[in-house]
Amino acid sequence: MIQGKGTMNVIEIQGANKTYKRWRKPPEHAVRGLNLEVQAGGVFGFLGPNGSGKTTTIRLLLGLAKPDSGNLKLFGRSVPHDLPAVIGRVGSLVETPLFFPTFTGRQNLTLLAQASGIPRSRVDEILGLVELSGRADDRVKGYSLGMKQRLGIAAALLKRPELLILDEPGNGLDAAGIREIRQLISDLGASGVTVLLSSHQLSEVQQVCDRVAIMSRGQVIAAGSVSELLAAGSSGDVRIRLHDGERGREVLQHHGFTVTSEEDSLRIGRVDDPSRVTRVLSEAGLYLSELTPISTDLESVFLQITGTEPGAPHHAADLVSGADAPEKEAGR
Ligand code: ATP
Fold first, then answer.
1. pTM
2. Domain residues of the chain, as ranges?
3. Ligand 1 nearest atom to the CA of residue 218, by list position
4. Atom of ligand 1 nearest to the CA of 55
5. CB of residue 91 inside a 6 A radius of ligand 1
6. What is the pLDDT of residues 275-314, one digit of tens each?
7. CATH fold of 236-293, please?
8. Cβ 52 under 6 angstroms from ligand 1
């Protein structure tokens, strides 16, 4: 991972392992030799299919589970040993938050604030930030799941954390709920909070993240800025439109291009130099009305690296033991 001079790693994990013992079943190696660095500021996407080890990693960071081996640090301090010194700088939403359903959103937050010595004025401020001011005096049992998630984020933000860890905050939300949460997360990242956002919806969250790490079977298999990963995973295919598509296809194939006809366009595979396409066609008296690089997304990048769809069942126990390298798992 690239790390600029003077930037601080809010999270650092080196060689973390976590195995769950299970009754009458082989142990589950949920995290295997995991390395991760998250710099201060912005939204960091911690992505991977269900069961790839994201929640376990977050639990290790928050001291909710103990690693078998490896070094974990928050703000440069060892976890779990020095956690009490830094936990006040970390807010988290790891499971669906528990609130008193018959109390209002404001009452729930006020109770939490009182318990931590946080002034009441912060409750109003935070309700505004998560856009719940209008519903703050309604009982929580009448809230939608999206509102409950926003209340959960509000609770995590009460103490003004420098690092906010959100585990799948979009789970169970409809498209509108996901958009609202996404906007809130994006605003928080822009305001200087470091947000670690875990999600199995790779394409969904790529819009909100500056940098990402993609997990597969307990390991980080790719990490970097979203644009770096997309560029690395780009197929290099382009789509063109021209008046005489049939003739265009013949000419391009004659010059060695791989061409597939689409509804009203042609797709050309692995084009290193798009100007060659334009030149070859114009030399044959054919002119393009459009030439567009075909964009990729993080799901395709994941597919390329692992040979499996992110949605495919992804359980650590499926692995052949000892398979430590993030090797291509073709055909799985
Ligand atoms: P999800 O989004 O579904 O929670 P995840 O990427 O967060 O997925 P984990 O929850 O960390 O993944 O799970 C990683 C693996 O460890 C899975 O195979 C899961 O079944 C297993 N696992 C998690 N917690 C336990 C536990 N307490 N006991 C046994 N196995 C566990």
1. 0.81
2. 9-231+301-320, 236-293
3. 14
4. 7
5. no
6. 999 999 999 999 999 999 887 888 888 887 877 777 665 4
7. Alpha-Beta Plaits (3.30.70)
8. yes
Q: Which amino acid is at 247?
A: R
Bridge partner residues of 292 (DSSP): 239
Q: Does domain 9-231+301-320 have CATH number 3.40.50.300?
A: yes
Average of per-residue pLDDT values in the chain:
87
The rounded Cα 208 to chain-centroid distance in angstroms is: 9
Residue with tokens 């090797």: 327
A 10 A CB-CB count for 261 gives 12
Confirm or reject: Cβ of 95 under 6 Å from ligand 1: no
Judge if the upstream peptide bond of residue 80 is cis by omega within 30 degrees of 0: yes
Whether 168 lines ligand 1, by a CB cut-off of 6 Å, is yes
Which residues face 259 on adjacent strands? 268
Residue to mutate (ligand 1; options 28, 196, 197, 198; most atoms within 8 A of CB): 28
- How far apart, in whole angstroms, are the C-alpha atoms of residue 198 and residue 213? 10
Pocket test for ligand 1, best of 18, 54, 318 (most atoms within 8 A of CB): 54
